[in-house]
Structure formats: structure tokens, C-alpha cells
Specification:
The structure holds two protein chains of two kinds. By secondary structure, chain A is mostly beta strands. Chain A is about 5% helix and about 30% strand. Chain A has two helices and 22 strands. Chain A has a six-stranded mixed β-sheet. Chain A has a five-stranded antiparallel β-sheet with strand order 13-15-21-17-19, with no helix packed on it. In chain A, strands 5-4-9-10 form a four-stranded antiparallel β-sheet, with no helix packed on it. Chain A is elongated and about 85 Å long. Chain B is mainly beta. Helices cover about 5% and strands about 55% of the residues of chain B. In chain B, strand 4 and strand 5 form a beta hairpin. Chain B is globular. Classes of the chains: A mainly beta, B mainly beta. Chains A and B meet through strand 13, strand 14, strand 15, strand 16 and strand 22 of A and helix 1, strand 1, strand 3, strand 5 and strand 7 of B. Strand 14 (about 240) of chain A pairs antiparallel with strand 10 (about 130-145) of chain B, so a sheet runs across the interface.
């Protein structure tokens, strides 16, 4: 009898030992985005938020669960309780604090908390309980807890899943889980990228995470590839200042080159213009000349033939330098300009300064 | 590719350059915004160097040939809420500028255009001519209501330019929505005694509501004298509405 009892105790102990520990990769509800820049200068949104995602095939009731936050080095967690359920393939948005009314408002959230997430670094845990955690001092300390459903460390966080935290974030970037929230390898650094925040709620479109069946011999599989290429426009100058050194009245200082590079993928092209302020303490005859237009560009008729053209002073209308009527070269369109003076007038000696403004507008 | 090119430009701009101030470099995406009343969007800005930037909504003027320029603020500019208006952009983080359109209830239906102007402040260097850059982002605000599309050919005439003959086609957008005239939307076929001498087509452009535009179509052929010019205005797709007009021209 004693032996049978001992055997039963041994089997029970084995059964207890074989209760699965939390394996985040095998669970269905995950943190899919973390944004801590809400309402800061240049923020994309007014509020911080954490987005959850159900990547499984069954509805999960999250009533009694919490989203918890601790600072990058801290172990003091603030918990925000959740309620309701998340349908398969659906998201769940938890709105947090706002620094100011800067940025766009969030879509109507599914839960609201008052926690203030740090912009660049911190720890966010999804916990199947509302009791604040006490872990987080070192890497791996929270993800070993059976109640921690998911953990994301971003920036200089002391705890995270895997070997490194997710990237440092800014007011205009969120930690975004790859593939719409489907990827989970138990690694904050591998699963998340810093990208533009795109908060989704339970009302957003559902996303079915694809399974990866083993293809049979001879079978073909197709994948949908989707990309929204945004119109982009950039301008880059050769120099931040044009310094002509010393000169005397009646002299014409040598021209200084200022190459302006404009990159645009607009099918309509762009217009490049310029103006300047008056020289102080008194104005000087400042001129521009252009060697040629870049391929595909049209130089302003005023600059044709290498003419030296006075640069207008605000509030006069800008001088049109040139235009394009199609998308530019990949490396950018280079407008080779040169600046200088016509014969300097008999002005009082002194240090003369002005500012020059280049403007590019997409057509 | 654009982003790669911009990144390469940034890398060049950010390279150590002794004590020289960094080269002004700024990139934005998207370069155009279309907003419905009450909606908002974010423009992302990147800079190769830390820079103080001013964001301002102002007016947009477009000349006959579709060249845009900064103008004094009009109605649509006053409807835009831009935040933040002044900020510091750093190379590592970039910045986001929120633009919200709030047209008043009495605003007339259709498209209204403004310009979001992002301007770097010149470096504090006291020597020489300080240089700064501005990028203008065209913002179209669409006020709901009856949308009218009415594009008409007003005039066709021939102008001689050196050895070229330029056929000028004057258009008017009498509707209340911006018309995007794709490449080849304005086509002129030159015909003499039933034989086609040339078929000329235009470059793409936008024509703002209640505005006029001019398309220059260059004829470099050798024919001279009277011809019939058939002007077709439209996307030249089966089933699409096309405006046609025929005139006599002397090449």
C-alpha cells in the first residue's frame, strides 16, 4: 500500500512538473504596438497607447487581465485593467496618458488608462492578472513569470524577451510587431521594428495570420505583395553658408558654387525657386547663374545662356530656378548654381550678411 | 529608392566637415495631402542635421503653365491646424507634423488648396550668406457637397519660337474639383487634306478649380501653311468623356 501511495504521489508530481510553463510563442494574445510619444513635441498622436492582437483562431476573454508598464530601469509597475474579449485576427487598443494636445487623436480605444509611457525606452507587459508585477530588474526576469502573457522591452529596457530590446522610439515612431502582429519569436528585438504608429482597435479590419503548410511536390503557392509608395520630396544643399571673403568696391568677387539636389518621385515633378533677404548694413547686388538644368529639368528662361540674374529680395516674388514635369532621377536632380556679385558698389566698409532661401514645391 | 537616395544624401551631408555647419537637407513624405473636412494627416520630416523648423500654412498660386509658388494665405490655409508649428528635428528621430482640416460650415463644396510650408532656420554662422531650405506640401481640402467637373478648351493659337511652332491650348477648369490631366490628356492632331501630319500631346499637370491653364505643344515638323487642328481633351480611354474641338491653324 505504501508503495502504491508513493507511486501515486510520484505520478502526481510528474503531472505537476509537466504543466506547461508560459511559452509566449504558443499563446494567442500579444502586444502588437507600443507608442510612448503621445502629445510630445512633433508627436503623431495625442496619447500614448498599447495595441494588442489576437493572432489565434479563437476568441479570448481578457477580462481581469492588465497591461502593465514600468520605466526602462524600474521594477515598479502600473497596471491598467482590461475587459471584454478579442476576436481572432482583431486588435484591442489601450489608450494611455497625453502630454499635450499635439498630434492626431487616437481612434476610439477599447480600454483607457492613465499611465504615462516614456517616449524612448520602457517595459510593457500583458499580464493575465491585475496585480502589479515586481520583476524586471534583469533580462528574462518577467518573461519567466507564468502570468506574463507577453513582454516588450524597448529602448534601454532592463528586461525584454530574447537577447535584446526593441529599438529606441521617438515621438513619431512606435514599436510595431512585424506582419501586422503575426510574428512572435519571443524576441523583442527580432519581433519589433520602429515604425510610424498606426493604432488599430477592435473595430479595425481583421487580419488572419497565415499558416505555413508544407508545400506538396509540384504545388504552387502565391502570395499577395502590397506596398503604398508615398510621394516624397527632399532638398539638399552643397553649403550652409556662402562666404566670399574680403573684397573692395568696384571688384567682382569670384562666383561660389551651390549645387542644389532635389529628389522627387512625383509624376508631375516640382518647381524650385529662391529669394533672399537684403544685405545688412546695406544691400549689395547679389546674383545667381545656372550652368544647366539636370536631365529632365527645364531651366527658367531668365537663367538661359548663363545669364547673371539678380536674386529677388523678400517680399518680392521668388525667382523661378527651374521645373521638372516627371519623377526625377533616383539619386536626385542636381541644379548646378553659382552665386556672386556684380561690381561691388562704393559701400561703407564692414561685414555684410544676408540669408538665402531655396524652396521646392511638388507640382 | 527615393528614401535610399535621400538617405545617401543625408549620409553625405552628415559626414564630418571640420567646423563647417552641416549642409541643410530636408525630406518629407508625403509630398501632397488630400484631406476631407475634419480629417487629419501626419507629414513625416527627416533632416540630416539637427535643425529648427517652422511649419506654416499659407496660400498656393499656380501659373498658367502649372508652376506652383508660395502665395499669401487664402481661405483654405486658415482652415488648417498645424502642430507643432515650431520644433527641432534631429537626424535620428525625424519629426511628425499633424495637419487637420477644419473648413467652416459655410465653405463652398469642392476642392480648396493650400500650402504647408516647412522652413529650416538658417545656421547661426555670422559669416557670409546663410542658406536655408523650404519644402512646400500641397494640401487639398475637399468640402463635401455637390462636386462639379467642367473642363473646357478656351482658345487655341499658334506661336512661332525660332524654328519651332508652338500650339498653345488654353484651358479653363470651371468645376469645383482639381483636375489631374495625365500625360497625353491634351492631344492635338494636325491634319491636311485628310492626312495626319503630326499628333502632339501634353505633359501631365493639375488644374485647380476655377482656374485657367495653358499647354504648350511643340511642332518640329517641316510642314507650313494651313492645317486643321483637332484638339482632344480627356483620358482617351474607351467610354471616357472626351472634349473635342477643331480649328484651322496656319503653321
Amino acid at each position: 500500500m505504501y508503495r502504491i501511495t508513493l507511486l501515486l504521489v510520484f505520478i502526481a508530481a510528474l503531472a505537476l512538473l509537466s504543466v506547461p510553463t508560459v511559452d509566449a510563442a504558443s499563446l494567442d494574445i500579444l502586444v502588437s504596438q507600443v507608442y510612448g510619444g503621445g502629445g510630445n513635441a512633433a508627436a503623431s498622436f495625442t496619447n500614448d497607447y498599447v495595441e494588442l492582437f489576437n493572432r489565434g483562431s479563437a476568441t479570448v476573454d481578457v477580462t481581469g487581465w492588465s497591461v502593465q508598464y514600468a520605466t526602462a530601469a524600474g521594477i515598479s509597475w502600473q497596471a491598467t485593467g482590461l475587459s471584454g474579449s478579442i476576436q481572432p485576427g482583431h486588435y484591442y487598443l489601450v489608450q494611455f496618458a497625453s502630454a499635450a494636445a499635439v498630434g492626431a487623436p487616437l481612434p476610439t480605444p477599447d480600454a483607457i488608462g492613465t499611465t504615462n509611457l516614456a517616449v524612448s525606452g520602457g517595459k510593457v507587459a500583458l499580464v493575465r492578472d491585475a496585480t502589479p508585477l515586481t520583476c524586471g530588474a534583469a533580462a528574462g526576469s518577467c518573461s519567466g513569470s507564468a502570468l506574463v502573457q507577453d513582454l516588450v522591452g524597448y529602448g534601454p529596457a532592463s528586461d525584454f524577451e530574447g537577447s535584446a530590446p526593441a529599438p529606441v522610439l521617438t515621438s513619431s515612431t512606435a514599436a510595431v510587431r512585424a506582419s501586422g502582429g503575426c510574428v512572435d519569436t519571443d524576441s523583442s528585438s527580432a519581433d519589433f521594428i520602429a515604425a510610424a504608429p498606426t493604432p488599430r482597435t477592435s473595430s479595425s479590419s481583421a487580419l488572419a495570420c497565415g499558416t505555413s503548410p508544407v508545400p506538396s511536390a509540384g504545388a504552387t503557392q502565391s502570395a499577395t505583395v502590397d506596398l503604398n509608395l508615398q510621394p516624397a520630396l527632399s532638398i539638399s544643399l552643397e553649403r550652409a553658408t556662402l562666404s566670399f571673403g574680403g573684397a573692395v568696391a568696384g571688384e567682382t568677387p569670384p562666383l561660389i558654387s551651390e549645387r542644389v539636389t532635389v529628389t522627387s518621385n512625383s509624376a508631375l515633378g516640382y518647381a524650385l525657386t529662391m529669394h533672399r533677404s537684403a544685405f545688412q548694413p546695406s544691400d549689395l547686388p547679389f546674383v545667381v547663374t545656372a550652368a544647366a538644368a539636370p536631365p529632365g529639368g527645364q531651366l527658367s528662361p531668365a537663367l538661359a545662356g548663363g545669364a547673371l540674374v539678380p536674386v529677388p529680395i523678400v517680399p518680392a516674388a521668388d525667382l523661378l530656378l527651374g521645373t521638372t514635369t516627371a519623377a526625377g532621377a533616383t539619386a536626385g536632380d542636381v541644379w548646378p548654381l553659382s552665386f556672386g556679385f556684380t561690381a561691388l558698389p562704393a559701400a561703407p566698409p564692414g561685414h555684410y550678411t544676408a540669408s538665402l532661401t531655396f524652396t521646392v514645391i511638388g507640382r | 529608392m527615393i528614401i535610399l537616395a535621400a538617405a545617401a544624401a543625408f549620409a553625405l551631408a552628415a559626414s564630418p566637415a571640420a567646423a563647417r555647419p552641416p549642409r541643410p537637407t530636408m525630406a518629407v513624405t508625403p509630398a501632397r495631402l488630400a484631406l476631407a473636412g475634419g480629417s487629419s494627416a501626419t507629414v513625416h520630416l527627416a533632416s540630416a542635421a539637427t535643425a529648427v523648423v517652422d511649419a506654416q500654412a499659407t496660400g498656393l498660386a499656380v501659373d498658367l503653365r502649372g508652376r506652383p509658388r508660395v502665395a499669401s494665405p487664402g481661405d483654405a490655409a486658415s482652415w488648417l491646424e498645424v502642430a507643432p508649428r515650431h520644433f527641432t528635428v534631429r537626424p535620428a528621430s525625424g519629426a511628425g507634423i499633424s495637419v487637420t482640416a477644419k473648413p467652416p460650415p459655410e465653405a463652398r463644396p469642392g476642392d480648396h488648396v493650400a500650402l504647408l510650408l516647412l522652413t529650416t532656420r538658417p545656421s547661426s554662422s555670422s559669416s557670409g550668406v546663410a542658406v536655408r531650405v523650404r519644402i512646400g506640401i500641397v494640401v487639398t481640402v475637399r468640402v463635401p457637397g455637390k462636386l462639379v467637373r467642367r473642363l473646357v478648351v478656351e482658345r487655341i493659337r499658334l506661336r512661332r519660337r525660332a524654328r519651332e511652332r508652338v500650339i498653345e491650348v488654353d484651358l479653363a477648369n470651371r468645376g469645383n474639383v482639381t483636375e489631374r490631366l495625365g500625360r497625353g490628356w491634351i492631344a492635338v492632331t494636325l491634319i491636311r487634306r485628310g492626312r495626319v501630319l503630326a499628333r502632339l500631346s501634353s505633359l501631365p499637370r493639375d488644374l485647380l478649380p476655377l482656374s485657367r491653364g495653358r499647354a504648350d505643344l511643340v511642332y518640329r515638323g517641316a510642314a507650313r501653311g494651313w492645317v486643321r487642328a483637332l484638339i482632344e481633351l480627356g483620358p482617351h480611354r474607351r467610354g471616357a468623356h472626351t472634349v473635342r474641338r477643331s480649328v484651322r491653324l496656319r503653321l
